[in-house]
Design goal:
This protein is mostly helical and about 500 residues long. The chain is built from 23 helices and no strands. The protein folds into three domains: about 170 residues, Alpha Horseshoe (Serine Threonine Protein Phosphatase 5, Tetratricopeptide repeat), CATH 1.25.40; about 100 residues, Tetratricopeptide repeat domain (Serine Threonine Protein Phosphatase 5, Tetratricopeptide repeat), CATH 1.25.40.10; about 100 residues, Tetratricopeptide repeat domain (Serine Threonine Protein Phosphatase 5, Tetratricopeptide repeat), CATH 1.25.40.10. The N terminus is likely disordered.
Length: about 500
């Protein structure tokens, strides 16, 4: 049998002759969304081998076995699975289950390497699966994979619609719940996301479910629970790829607590298992920069962008270069960001949030505001979007309109130094000095290294506010427009919007 040729930069898989049967008729596919890139994995249903033979040994079989356990496959094994299914489908184009497997595998690879071209391949494969066996005839595999693909592209309403359709038809299919969690979080429905995470825990144990639980605890602000659950997830992880993803999660939690040395240690442990793990490279770069080890940080950012060229990483690297006074290098990173967003957009990926964050602080705030208003209008109301929209309103001179969005971001529960900083600056502009002082101090207490550009500004703003009046103000948040109290007078001029 002729070996499948390499196309579009994909490694050739095993020849069609190495496989004589489909991988299983009840295979489910569900990838994680763009908000959880580090742990992105195919989570295929518990009935993987129930009514079909187990796959033959080899890398494609290992990828399927990892998916069955809810663990990410190694990238070489994932490439082998893609090649294997393509070869099989040349001879068996009517196998809708294998089309669904192929589409889900493309989605995972595209997410793991930030390769948006794979998303177009994924959609074509999944549409072929539905053409062979439509959704109304019970093609659950393709529906759930389409939900995961929608989330990976940042289309959370569509991701929710596909996953909810599967849950209604098969409420015990645990693989529907990771897709639901990502969709709900992208839409800002955290109550539903937490409920879905609890349902997942009831249906499935192991590292994948525990990692989801840790993220849910983090979003509620339950740091101790999040860390303990993430440690358990790492202990239960199967294989280097999943172990690395769990160690990355522990690194992120340490970073958010303001512990860059501990964070760097966790990221380094992940990189010992998967040397090109993009999220851990970017995380370690961030932590090294916070420790003043900028040359090493720049090295890791370059490696991260080579392994996983996300625009978010280019933004982080650019801000570190800017903080170091290397404006030319910063400009190069910002151009990379814009180019990556444009490229991904041609494959249906929504990069509005990261582009708006860049424009708000480094480009055109009014353009950022336009983009973020559109995101809010389409139902994308996550904490991140609320925070970014509030900050864009503030940066365009609309501090009063900005405050409700800043409050929404901080009041959801997550302890974010960036969110607290933004809220504090907005309150400062409005003359709510007690609240501003509290939130700026909270930002620095949460993580004094949260941004190479903004953390120093938080310290400056807090110093400018000075100490609170003796005995404390009667109200930390005076009604807007009210006269200043006798012990805490307003400054002669309201501070201009800070960056």
């Amino acid at each position: 049998m002729k070996t499948l040729a390499t196309t579009a930069g994909e490694p050739a898989g095993p020849s069609a002759g190495t496989r004589r049967r489909p991988a299983g008729r009840t295979l489910l596919a569900a990838g994680l969304g763009a908000a959880a890139l580090a742990g992105a994995a195919l989570t295929w249903g518990p009935a993987l081998f129930d009514d079909g033979p187990r796959p033959l040994p080899g890398p494609a079989g290992r990828a399927l076995s990892a998916a069955h356990a809810g663990a990410p496959a190694s990238l070489p094994d994932l490439a082998a699975l893609i090649g294997d299914r393509k070869a099989w489908l040349r001879e068996h184009p009517g196998d809708e289950a294998s089309w669904a497997v192929l589409g889900a595998a493309y989605t995972e690879r595209g997410t793991r390497i930030a390769g948006p071209a794979d998303f177009g391949r994924a959609e074509r494969a999944l549409r072929k699966s539905l053409a062979v066996r439509p959704a109304k005839r019970g093609n659950v595999d393709a529906q759930l994979a389409l939900g995961a693909l929608a989330n990976a592209r940042g289309d959370y309403a569509r991701g929710r619609a596909w996953a909810e359709r599967v849950r209604r038809a098969a409420p015990k299919r645990w693989t529907a719940y990771p897709v639901l969690i990502d969709a709900y979080k992208g839409l800002g429905d955290y109550a539903a996301a937490h409920k879905a995470a609890e349902a997942l825990q009831g249906l499935r144990r192991g590292a994948a479910a525990l990692d989801r639980a840790a993220q849910s605890f983090r979003d509620r602000g339950w740091r101790e629970d999040a860390n303990a659950t993430a440690i358990e997830a790492a202990a239960r992880a199967q294989g280097p790829a999943q172990k690395a993803a769990c160690l990355y999660r522990l690194g992120e939690l340490a970073w958010e607590r303001g512990e860059p040395a501990e964070a760097a240690a966790q990221y380094t442990a992940a990189l010992r298992l998967v040397p090109a793990h993009g999220p851990s490279l970017a995380g370690r770069a961030r932590a090294l920069g916070a420790q003043g080890r900028t040359a090493e940080a720049f090295r890791d950012y370059r490696a991260a962008l080579e392994a996983m060229p996300l625009p978010e990483y280019a933004l982080e690297a650019g801000e570190l270069y800017e903080a170091a006074g290397l404006d030319g290098d910063a400009a190069t990173q910002y151009e990379t960001l814009r180019a990556r967003v444009t490229e991904a957009g041609s494959y249906g990926v929504n990069g509005e949030l990261v582009l708006a964050r860049y424009e708000t602080d480094h480009g055109a705030p009014e353009e950022a505001l336009r983009r973020l208003r559109a995101e809010w209008a389409r139902g994308h109301r996550s904490m991140e979007v609320a925070d970014a929209l509030g900050w864009a309103l503030y940066r365009t001179g609309r501090a009063e309109e900005a405050l409700p969005y800043a409050k929404r971001a901080t009041d959801e529960g997550r302890r974010s130094a960036l969110f607290s900083y933004h809220r504090g600056q907005i309150e400062r502009a409005l003359g709510e000095y007690g609240a501003a002082r509290r939130h700026l101090a909270e930002a620095l207490r949460t993580n004094p290294h949260f941004s190479p550009l903004l953390a120093p500004r938080a310290k400056e703003a807090l110093a400018a506010l000075g100490d609170p009046p003796p005995g404390g103000p009667k109200s930390l948040q005076k009604p807007r427009g009210s006269a200043a109290g006798p012990r805490e007078q307003r400054p002669a001029a309201r501070p201009r919007p800070a960056r």
